[in-house]
């Protein structure tokens, strides 16, 4: 069974604020820094874990996580030469850019294959362009024109300084309406509080998909009980090496143990993401 893990955090550890690092720098992740130190080490780990491709998650969050706009150049350099297996994921934070239009074009020209929006960590609403944060629309517009997916974190965050007033995915309803050709991914399927909302948005909008990262596979049917009904629009992800996620391989094994059937498993683990992210 081929595996495309669309949600793996491959970020510069030296940027992470100490209080945020304390949540993930534990014994269960003792080897994560070494694995993520070089693309070669990461690819060897992926081979050992049985994972063919991953999305290397990054986003600009100087206030909460410590990541500055330089993460885009960092991940572009990290993935260069390996983009058949490593999808570079970057970000533009309109609260920290004077020229959002210029920056999103620059970032995408680096070879960034997906944009990540993390409302609780970037401190703005996904539909903020309908108010004072009008430059946010430049990100969606440029990605829509280029066919580049935008992934939104949905659901709450336990990290210090995160603002969970932005955790509800319902504002993404506006984004899906205003940018109907924009590929949208709802990361974490709204867990733990907004699963029904995320499921509704994925059913309502042709351009909205779910990723099920950060949900323990054994609890998946509790969070997304009708996941098989939406199998064509669900992407696999683990959120490794986030808190509680100790192994990409173990998550896949636990998912397969649910017995959803080979057709559903293939769509979620590989086919849906592979169709969205064509080989470069």
Short description:
This protein is an alpha/beta fold and 280 residues long. It has twelve helices and eight strands. The chain has one domain: Metal-dependent hydrolases (TIM Barrel, Alpha-Beta Barrel), CATH 3.20.20.140.
Strand order, largest beta sheet? 1-2-3-4-5-6-7-8
Overall shape: globular
Instruction: Report the CATH topology name.
Output: TIM Barrel
Low-confidence stretches: none
SS class: alpha/beta
Mean pLDDT score: 96
Describe the overall structure.
It is a single chain. This protein has 280 residues and is an alpha/beta fold. It has a single domain (4-276), classed as TIM Barrel, CATH 3.20.20.140. It is built from 12 helices and 8 strands. Strands 1-2-3-4-5-6-7-8 form an 8-stranded parallel sheet. Strand 5, helix 8 and strand 6 (184-187) form a beta-alpha-beta unit. Helix 5 (100-109) packs parallel to helix 7. It is globular and about 45 Å long. The relative contact order is 0.15.
List the helices and strands and how they pair.
Layout: E1 4-9, H1 18-24, H2 32-35, H3 39-49, E2 53-57, H4 71-79, E3 86-90, H5 100-109, E4 114-117, H6 119-122, H7 136-146, E5 150-153, H8 172-178, E6 184-187, H9 195-204, E7 208-211, H10 220-223, E8 234-235, H11 248-256, H12 262-276
